[in-house]
Amino acid sequence: MADLKKSPGGRETPQGELRPEVVEDEVPRSPVEEEPGGGGSNSSETKLSPREEEELDPRIQEELEHLNQASEEINQVELQLDEARTTYRRILQESARKLNTQGSHLGSCIEKARPYYEARRLAKEAQQETQKAALRYERAVSMHNAAREMVFVAEQGVMADKNRLDPTWQEMLNHATCKVNEAEEERLRGEREHQRVTRLCQQAEARVQALQKTLRRAIGKSRPYFELKAQFSQILEEHKAKVTELEQQVAQAKTRYSVALRNLEQIRNLV
């Protein structure tokens, strides 16, 4: 039987039960949630008779079209956003339920093995940082080589006519020399940063190996729990990205709606 712990509310909870930080507890939400102008977008759509449309200023007609297009897009994307948020909440609840069930079944091995899986996560992040630093260093080396080539070309131009100093070539040489110095500094910074993150990555990998040896039994027993957690984390990240994308689309459509409405008011004031 799994060991029991007293929860803050007095309920006895299996030791392997899902901790609050395992999954997020709310759907990501954009700060832009209100319709422009304080009301629904449909309320500002203008219904005109055919004769009135013929008499409209072309600029007004164009802005009305923009207004209606933005309104339709807002309504459509907000429906998709509501569905995406509902799906996110459902997966979140399902993941919490399944992880709690798995944790209750496996017991204390989950907490014992948690440092190993946390070390693996940190090692993966360190490896990604090392790769980024390597790319930055390679770019810095390329820029340094290109700047040195510019200096060589400028020097050849300056030396082409020893009897007369061409100010154009001299200016180019000065500029190229400055670029070489800047590129050299960037190259050295990139080299130091790459060395630093490489050391951190090696330390993180060493910790993973050490924990794997000392916690081998707990790691093997708790593997189903952490594999399930990783699967749900990936799924939730994908749905979170979809929610964020739809929120941005709504915000952009509302911005276009507000711009069209403002332009329409300005045109009417001028007519």
From TrEMBL:
Location of the protein in the cell: Cytoplasm
Question: According to its record, what are the GO cellular component terms?
Answer: cytoplasm
Which domain of life does the UniProt lineage start with? Eukaryota
**Biological processes per GO annotation:** intracellular signal transduction
- Point to the regions of Basic and acidic residues compositional bias: 18-32
Supply the domain comment. The N-terminal half of the protein mediates interaction with RAB11A and functions as guanine nucleotide exchange factor. Four long alpha-helices (interrupted by a central kink) assemble into coiled coils, giving rise to a 'V' shape.
The family line of this record is: Belongs to the SH3BP5 family.
The entry's function note states: Functions as guanine nucleotide exchange factor (GEF) for RAB11A.
Protein name, please? SH3 domain-binding protein 5
Q: Which organism is it from?
A: Rattus norvegicus
